Amino acid sequence: MKKFFITANWKLNGNIKMISSFFERLKLYSSVFLEKNIVIIAPPTIYLERVYKNIKNMNIFLGAQNVDINLQGAFTGETSALMLQDIGVKYVIIGHSERRLLHHETNDLISKKFHLIKELNLIPILCIGETERDKKNGQTQKIIKAQLNCIFKKLGKSVFNNTIIAYEPIWAIGTGLSADPKDVQLIHQFIKNYIKKHDKINTNDILVQYGGSINHTNVKKFIEQPDINGLLIGNSSLSLQEFLKIIKIAHDII
Ligand code: PGA
């Protein structure tokens, strides 16, 4: 059985009312669907603790959507990895394309975050992926290599154990246009081979999620691909009904 991680990235969405109703209803289903999949919920920072209280006795883990490169000090408005750890966060999404594009995060900054997260024994979910233009110009592999190289450059050759990589083609995020599952399979294979070339890690321990316009109608073919180890889900994770449908499909296939 392959390891399968389903991450809900709520982005800048949700409120107290939504969280209460989401978990009240989710608790009714927990024991049935949540056994085989590893489910991670990444709410906005301000709701992390509230979500943590709700998932305490469920097989669900807490994820953060971002972290600062500093652990403490005069850094107004930031959140430290130590603080995330303190309140029960286990996974931290870094390098999401929205942070790369809208907040000008560079590969170098992202590799610093990666390093810090690993040092604290948290698990990074490292997002990588190409723009539509890169894809049209045949640059997908080159972009992915650069996004991975900066991690190797900063941290040496044995860094991808206990890490999740999320391949998210930027043109597929939030657009309703998911990538072709067979193309994604090939790119995941490429990512795994490339990491394997540089890192001593066993191929089976390299975990690559796909993200970009996943919903219950298109998810099956993604789950069936051998090198897709999970999903990073934005829009479809905000509706419990839709999210549960996806979890159930994964549960039945894996
Ligand atoms: P989406 O977002 O599922 O809404 O396309 C995915 C993501 O950005 O992680």
From TrEMBL:
Coiled coil: none annotated. It comes from Buchnera aphidicola (Acyrthosiphon lactucae). It comes from the Bacteria. NCBIfam families: tim (TIGR00419). It is an enzyme of class 5 (isomerase). The lineage of its organism: Bacteria, Pseudomonadati, Pseudomonadota, Gammaproteobacteria, Enterobacterales. Substrate binds at N9, W10, K11, G174, S213. This is Triosephosphate isomerase. Belongs to the triosephosphate isomerase family.
